[in-house]
Specification:
Helix content: 25-40%
Strand content: 15-25%
Mean pLDDT: 86
CATH architecture of one domain: 3-Layer(aba) Sandwich
Shape: globular
CATH class of one domain: Alpha Beta
Number of helices: 11
Largest sheet: 7 strands, parallel
Distance between the termini: 61 Å
CATH topology of one domain: Rossmann fold
CATH superfamily of one domain: NAD(P)-binding Rossmann-like Domain
Radius of gyration: 20 Å
Length: 338
């Protein structure tokens, strides 16, 4: 299959938004998932494959980073392809046969190669432009709960800028904002599980910071529901779990009860925490990321009246599922009897 692409962007008129009609059977539809090799991306690829879609899996580094994705579908159903976010030609090859483009590219920390601006804003713009020029019918862009152009957090501020760039190019794009996600390979429960192996825990985030932990499988289910339902076109969904925690309540209700001893919590004021974590981050020895410290000054909870999981017909997974993950995280640790 080959498409004719002129040098000038073509004006796109969408009269019939793409909808996945035959979930559970081979629909013949093609989706490109940028960010497919990440913690959440692999589950989105698996869910789309199970729904009968062909999935293009762009990867940036070594082919082995996406080898695990090939077994998520039938032979040839998941197709890895190398890309460079700075090379538009590679983006064209990744999207030219697709009906859907899903942008899950993101960074939890900045490096000398890629900062927040380059990934959350510039890359989002280029991916959207490339998809538009190649007549891709649906565009789904992943962002974060708390994204705000005036946020004190550079991470959340650039997430909002990325949304704005995508919407300027794709007014009919669907935005999915995620609360902090938990699951087997997360950076939330696993981190606390690791930290509580010590009798002293240095807490660099705001203990009163409120957030709404989101189960990883709710993310992939929501992605599929967005594709299946044409009424989701152009809308923004904020996905969060059924309960709001503060950092302190999460520790005291779900983490510390599993410990045989009660660790001492050592907290830090914001400026000192930022300096400390920035230094540790350069040494690659930080338990916390600078973005986590900055984000903890803002409550990451879904807004009143915002569209969410229930609007997609999905029941949020919560406390029981968090406990299941915690039990696995604390497997090597002696636990108290309840």
């Amino acid at each position: 299959m080959q498409r004719n692409i002129s040098n000038a962007p073509q004006e796109k008129q969408i009269t019939q938004p793409f909808v996945l009609q035959r979930a559970g059977a081979n629909s013949g539809s093609v989706a490109t998932v940028f960010g497919c090799s990440g913690f959440l991306g692999r589950y989105v690829v698996e869910t789309l494959s199970e729904a009968g879609m062909y999935v293009v899996a762009p990867f940036r580094t070594e082919p082995k980073t996406v080898d695990h994705l090939k077994i998520l579908g039938e032979v040839g159903q998941v197709a890895p392809i190398r890309f460079d976010i700075r090379d538009k030609d590679t983006l064209v090859k990744a999207v030219e046969h697709s009906d859907v483009v899903i942008n899950m590219l993101g960074r939890a920390y900045e490096t000398r190669h890629f900062n927040y601006q380059q990934i959350h804003v510039d890359a989002a713009r280029l991916v959207a432009q490339t998809a538009r020029e190649n007549n891709v019918k649906r565009f789904i862009h992943f962002s974060a709960v708390g994204a705000d152009l005036n946020s004190p957090s550079p991470f959340l501020r650039t997430k909002a800028e990325g949304e704005r760039e995508v919407k300027e190019i794709y007014p009919e794009a669907t935005i999915i904002r995620l609360a902090p996600v938990f699951g087997p390979e997360d950076n939330l429960l696993n981190k606390w599980g690791y930290l509580t192996r010590s009798d002293r825990i240095r807490v660099f985030v705001n203990m009163d910071h409120k957030f709404q932990p989101l189960h990883f499988l709710n993310v992939s289910d929501a992605t599929l529901e967005v594709l299946k339902n044409s009424t989701t076109v152009g809308k923004t969904y904020e996905l969060g779990g059924p309960k709001i925690f503060s950092v302190e309540s999460l520790l005291r209700e779900l983490i510390l009860p599993y410990m045989e001893t009660k660790p001492t919590l050592i907290t830090y004021p914001l400026n000192k925490a930022k300096r400390y974590v920035y230094y540790l981050e350069q040494l690659r020895g930080a338990s916390f990321l600078l973005s986590e410290v900055e984000n903890s000054q803002v409550d990451l909870v879904t807004g009143d009246g915002s569209l969410g999981l229930k609007d997609l017909g999905i029941t949020p997974l919560g406390i029981k599922e968090m406990s299941d993950v915690i039990l696995k995280v604390f497997k090597p640790v002696k636990r108290m009897n309840f």
